[in-house]
Every structure is written in C-alpha cells, then in structure tokens.
Amino acid sequence: MPFTWLVLIILAIAAAGYVMGRGRALQSAGGDSRNLHSLPVYYGSNVAMWAIVPAAAVLIIWLLAQPFFINSRVLEMLPDSVVTEGSSIGLVMSDVRRVAEGLDVAVAQGAMTRAEATSIGTDDVRERLGAVGVALGANVSEPVLSGAQKYRSLTATGSAFMAAVAILIAAGGAGWAYSRSTAAFRARNTVERGILALLIFAASIAILTTIGIVFALLFNTIEFFKLYPAADFFLGTKWAPSFSGRGGASDLGVLPLLWGTFYISIIALLVAVPIGLFSAIYLSEYATPRVRGIAKPLIEILAGIPTIVYGLFALLTVGPLLVSMFGKDTVGWMQGGTAVMTAGLVMGIMLIPFVSSLSDDIINAVPQAMRDGSYGLGATQSETIRQVILPAALPGIVGAILLAASRAIGETMIVVLGAGAAARLSMNPFDAMTTITAKIVSQLTGDADFASPEALVAFALGMTLFVLTLCLNVFALYIVRKYREQYD
Amino acid sequence: MPDASMPPAAAAPKKSSLSVLDARTRKRNAAETRFRMYGVAAIAVGLLFLVFLFASILRSGIPAFTQTVVDIEFVLSQEQFEVAESKMLKTGEYQNIFVNALESQLQDRGLEVEFDGKAIERIVGKPGGTIRSFFLENPDRIGTPVSFELAASSRVDGYFNGRVTRDTIVDSRFLMASDLDLVDALEEAGIVHGAFNWNFITGTDSGVDNPGGAGLGASVIGSFFMMLVVLFLSLPIGVAASIYLEEFAPKNRWTDLIEVNISNLAAVPSIVFGILGLAVFIQFAGLPQSAPLVGGLVLTLMTLPTIIISTRASLAAVPPSIRDAALGVGASKMQSVFHHVLPLAMPGILTGTIIGLAQALGETAPLLLIGMVGFVAREYPEGFLSGFTDANSAMPAQIYTWASRADPGFYEKAWGGIIILLLFLITMNAIAVVLRRRFERRW
User: Fold this and answer.
1) Which residue, A18, A264, A313, B170, has fewest beta-carbon neighbours within 10 Å?
2) Which residue in chain A has the smallest CA separation from B363?
C-alpha cells in the first residue's frame, strides 16, 4: 500500500473521530453545549489528536527501524564469499538495494510481473532492468539477486504490517478518546497539553539542529583522524590533497588554510571597522534625522545583498581592477585577479553594515546624561565622542568587531570565487591564497569517495571552523550582553 | 613656595575675547571639523561602494537580456524539402538551403561587402535544426514565404555587446575579423538586430559550450520549490517555537539552553549547515542529491533562528493588557495567545518571515555541498511532486555554475542572473516594508 494512502486513511479516521467525538459529547450534554466542560470543538479535537499522534509516532519509529532490521536479516543470508577482494559488505548491500529498487521499478512500469520479479534468474536480470532504465554496473551474482528478492519480500511484509499496526493504533486511539467524550471530561485541558507539547517540540528543534551539526561533524572527523594523524592535520604546513584515492599521498595540513582565512579576515576588518565605526558615529551623533533616515537604510542594503553577488563582484570586477593597478603592467605585485586582497576588500565591503548597525545600537545605548555631563564641562562634540562615549561603548564595539570577525571567517562564496585555490603561507597580500571554507567546498564537491581522507578532511575542516566561530560568537555575545545590562 | 600664589609680573595679562578665537580653540575646532569629516567620508565611501557595486552589476548584466538575431524571410520549395529529407545530414542540408537563400537575398540588395557562404555560416550559428522542425510541424507552409528570427552565433552577440571588438578578435573558424564588416552591413540593412532574450528568463541551462542558449528558468523553478519547503516548514515551526519561548517557557536551564542555542545558530557559518545537510539528509537519510527538497530542509534550519528572533520581538510588542483582558473574560492561557496575541502579532511575523525567505533565497554555500552545482539543469520538473525530489538547480547555484565555467560568455549570464535574483529580493523586501507600514500597530 503506498505511503500516501496510509497517511490519508489515518487522517480520515481522525476526521471521522472529530465529528463523532463532538457529537457524542454534545449528546451526553443533552444537546446543550453550556452543560459541557469545554467547547464542543475541543472534544472533537481530542479524538482527532488521539487518532493521529500515537499512530504517527509508531509510523516514524517503524520507518526509522525497519531498514536496520531488514539489512541485518539480508546480511545473515548472504554468504561470506560474496564479499570479494577490493569490495566491502557495505558495497554489496548497496548492490542488493539497487537490484531490489530496480525490480520495484520494473514491476511498477509493468515490464515485469510480480511473480517474475521473485523468480527471475541471474542470466537476464541485468538486461531486463536495463530495459526499464535501471543500469547495473556488472552482472548480478546469485547471492545478490536472492538477497535483493529477500529484501523486497521483507520490505513488502514490513510495510503491510506497518500499515495494519498504524491503522489499528489510530482507530484504537480514536475509540478510546471517543469513549471518554462525555460532558464532564476536561477536553480543553487535554488538547491544550497536546498543543503545549507540540510547541515544546518546535522549540527543541534548535537544539536538535545543533546536536545534528555536532554529530555530523564529530563522527566524520573521528573517521578522518583514524585515516590521517591528527597531529599532521593540525601542525602540517603543507596542503596538497591527491585525488588518486590513496591516503598516503596527500598532505592535509590545516595551517596554510588557517593563515589564508585569518589574513583575508584581517584585511576585511581593516576595511570594515574604520568605515563602519565612523559611519555609526556620524549617524548616531551628528546626522540630522533626515540624513540618518536616508543613509542608514542605504548602507544596510549592502547587508541584504547575497554573498554570491559579492563573490562575482570580486572575481569579475575588483580582481581585474586590482590587477590593472598592481599587476605586471605597473608594479608587478599581483599575478592574477584572485588574491587575498581581492577577497579581503570585497568581504570588507560586505561587513561595513554589519559593524555600523551593531555599533550604532551600542553607541545609542550610552545614556544621554554622559554626553550632557561632558558638554557641560566644555568639551566639543568630537572630544565627547572620543573621550566619553567611545570608552563607554568600547566593550560593546569589541563584541561587534568579534561578531564581524566570525562572519568573515565563516564566509564562503567570496573566498571561493575571489581568493584563489592555492594554499600557501605567504605574507604578500596580492598572492592567491585559500581558506578553510573554500577547501570544504572543493573537497566535497568533487567526485571523491566519501570514505577517503581527501573527502573526510572537509569534516575536520568544518569542525575547526565551527569551533572557531562558536568560541568567537559565545565570547562576543557574552561581552555584548554584559555591556547592555550595564546601562539598562 | 610663595611664588606660586603670585602671577608672574613679567607676563602680560592674557587678552582673550569670545569673538576672537585663540590658537587652542582654533585647534580644537579644527579637530572637531576633521572628526566630523571622517564620519562623512566613511558614509560617502560606503555609499560609493554601493553605487559601484550596482553600476557594475547593471553594466555587465544588461547584455544578458538582449540577443542578436538574424531576421530573414525565405521560401522553402517542396522540391528542396524532399531533397533535404532524403539526405543523411538533414539539418546540415537545411542550413545550406538557408545560407544560400540569405546569400542570394544579400546579393539582390547589393551590399557593398565581399562575403561568401562560409562567412554567413559563422554569423548565424546553427539554424538547420530550428528550420527543419518548423517545416516538419507546419508542412502547409512549404512553398510560402516564412519569416524567421534566428539567433546569431555567440561571437557575433559578443561583438554587439562589446565583449568582442575589432582590436581583440582573433581569426578562427568561429569568427573572422572580416566577418565583422559583413555584420555591420547586415545591421545597416536591418537584417541583424538586437532583440529581447526571452530564452534567458524562460529557458533552461545549456551545456558548457553554448553560453548563448543558457537560461535561468529551470533554476527559478528550483528556487521556488525550495522556498515552498522553507515557508511551509520554517513558518509554523518558528512561530510555535517563539510562542513557547515567549509565552509559556518557565525560566529554567532548559529554556536558557534553547535561547543560547538559537542565538548561536544564527551566527553559525552557512557552509556548516551545508555539511549538516550532506551528512544527515543525503548520507544518513538517503534523500536524493541536488533535490530542492534537501535544499529547502537545509535552508529551513538556517532560516529558523531569523524567524524565531523576529517573531519573538513581535510577540513581545503586543501589550500585556491584551492578554490580561482575554484571561479576565475567562479564556485559557492557550486561548488568549492563539485567539488574541498571535493575530495581533501576525504582520510583524510575516514581515520577519519574508525577510528570512529573502535571505534563504540568496544563500549559496550550503547548496554547493548538497550537489546543486555539478548538476546541469536542462529540464523543467515534470510535475508538482517531482519538483521537490527531481534534481534541479537554484538561482544562486546556477549563477555560481556560470561564473565558474571557462567560457567568458557565461560571465554575462551570471551577471544577468544576479539582476533577476536581486529583482526577486527587492520585491520581497518591498512587500515586507509595505506590510510593516500598513499593518504594524504602535501600542
């Protein structure tokens, strides 16, 4: 039975339960809803809730558990000889699954009857599946084919059982709730508890996401460190991955990437911090409301532009421009358009509104009394800003700069397009260098095998990036929050 | 020290007046002006960057929307049709017929430029297939004059857009410098002219060697399906989470943990979400690569913090008197929130959602990791459901793909794609601004 049908049936049970539960409650109150504890809607919703929630929970658990169960049953029946040289049990299992899916497709398209699919021999299965568009790499061996047939039959039985169990539970839940739908039953309280549980679940998704990120990174990073020594990764000064698939030939040292990341971020901050800070000071202290109303949104447009646009801007506009200024026609510092300077400059432009609006908030939070006191002593406006406001706002501004730094370290598109691909430890800002994020992209978008250290290193890089930015963020948020409390 | 209390008799009493500035005041005032100028300069530089950015986008992107076409009317006789259909290389034969027709027409008009059939072939690209399929579908038009608008080759296109100039052109089998004289003559005769490139908006991506035929249409659809996923997941989840945190959550460690988590998730680099999508949705859950569904799920997780933060702000802006009044007439806490607070906060929530969606629409880095870049989006999805699961591209991913191709003809397409992407973003943000202006209430 298709899965959508199952869902529809459960929903139908819930809908019927809604109507019946509501009716029964009203009936028990003699048709007068004033005699009910809750509004009639709640009695209906209560029945519907009991129909859907337990059944859905069973479905989800079943769907998660079934593949593991079937895998282990099929593995049991596969002989050890099926795992040949240069292969692994995982590859054999994926073959089994592919054949099984192919048979499903063939049956669904009518190219094969159900009986044929369970009895077909190894001779013509590849040809028959090829005819319906399922291409198999090699001839199917006998154990794999019988494994696939077993897989299909187990899946079919499993799905049938699942459907039966889910429908039974839905009907049972609805029936139980229906039997309780009497005038004295506190339906609203039950339904509201259900809704509250739903709200709590939604709020916990943030936690689940973080857990997902940490586990995804952690497992693959551990896998990587089994293949490649951690010390070489953290202390290696050479980045030269090979794509031959042999781990020994690659040098995967993170230091050149870290250096590129920091160098580009520093240049970006050198551009963004002065411009952002001075604009924030001007906008909050000097500008008339009219100027502020025009200039602030205009500068903030820069923050709304997608990073791919900045990346293209770096690659196609700023890069060639810098080459024409510092290239071999003039001073000869720059070989190509992609360089630390290109990426840093453009990233700096991107960060201007980030620094300026955060600093603007912080400067505005400094109490007016401090300004008035300073003016009263005869200080000019700029003296007030430099000697009173900025020192008072300094922790907050430092926090804003740290947040901007974390943004710069994690930025991907600008460096992928603008910084180049060569990993090197150089001091020349006009050299092409590369960053952690750029290498994550290049290691994971190739055709590399996911089990090779060349692909797994991306997860270790991701972990490094995550920890780095997380520390910066936590520290910056701590400073900003502490500072805010000071003047609240 | 008795001297200290006495003013030194030798020094003349300092003359000072409010109307005459002394050196120190002048210095201080100059410092004041300087400081102020720094601020003006910073803002000017920021705005200059903005202007420069938009100027270069428009300058480089507008040509992507125009296309050079060869506008020609010609007659295909029944006899020619039969001969062409009997040949092995059918489209090639059609092309020969077309080139011959064009050549004779040009000679009739008495163009003063020397040219041959080869030159025309280089200019018109490969029209044979278009002509053949037209006559196969409309056999009744054989023998009558038919007017064709055929795309010129991408080099000629580049000549009109200024990408190829007479100084930079290198003679090749694609275009010779001498052909440009012919192109100029054709333009004067009104046969070659620019036209709006609808194919760029509605078409699908072409192969790596045909920048002229590349279109953004399929990836717009891909982005659309991704945004549907983001909207239908992140809005309910985000609102539910915000309601819990703002209205119901007790102040304890668990809710503190959630709050810290949300503010940290908002600052996690987007590429890390891409790694999450790759490891969890594709490797672990076995969802298809390059599918808008997976892209939508990843972008949902990225957008959630934004939506939660803005929703909480708009819930908090609803004054407590509303809640108290609802509770006072006997509503439960849940009823007061869902019947009164939430509807009042809705404009703010929608504004925040649209801004979150706009952010998600332009996000590229996570899409690179879930395989939306290697894929060439040649086809539209077949139906509504397969739109979620079939491999497709998305606007920013398509722009990246074009930017990383070797042929510089694609750069122009990438800039053009950016213009379309920015138009979408501007529209969304404008809607958000209008919503806020019209419906937001100040309490």
Assistant:
1) B170
2) A306
d(C-alpha B215, C-alpha B379), whole Å: 11
pLDDT tens digits for B153-186? 777 777 777 767 777 666 666 667 777 777 777 7
B247: helix, coil or strand? helix
Nearest CA to A418 out of A281, A308, A284, A324 is that of A308
- Measured CA to CA in angstroms, residue B143 lies from A95, B74, B78 at distances of 58, 9, 6
Amino acid at B9: A
Question: Which residues does chain B have within 8 Å of residue A421's beta carbon, measured at their own beta carbons?
Answer: none
**Closest to A417 in 3D by CA, of B399, B48, B413:** B399
H or E stretch at B427: helix B409-439
Contact indicator for B216, B417 with CB cutoff of 8 Å: yes
Residue B316 identity (one-letter amino acid): A
pLDDT one-digit tens code per residue, A85-135: 555 666 677 777 777 777 777 777 777 777 777 777 666 777 777 767 666
Domains held by chain B: number: 3
CB contact under 8 A, A295 and B358: no
The interface predicted TM-score of the complex, written ipTM, equals 0.85
Average pLDDT, integer, range B409-433: 91
Q: What is the pTM of this model?
A: 0.84
Best mutation target among B43, B290, B400 (most A Cβ atoms within 10 Å) is B43
Range of the domain at B148: 64-196
Question: Is the CB of B43 less than 8 angstroms away from the CB of A295?
Answer: yes
Measured N-to-C along each axis, helices A340-365 and A289-304 cross at an angle, to the nearest 10 degrees, of 140
Compute and round to an integer the Cα radius of gyration of chain A: 32
Asked whether the beta carbons of B290 and B389 are under 8 A apart, the reply is no
Please say which residue of B10, B42, B62 terminates a domain. Answer: B62
Task: Say yes or no: B73 and B140 in one domain.
Answer: yes
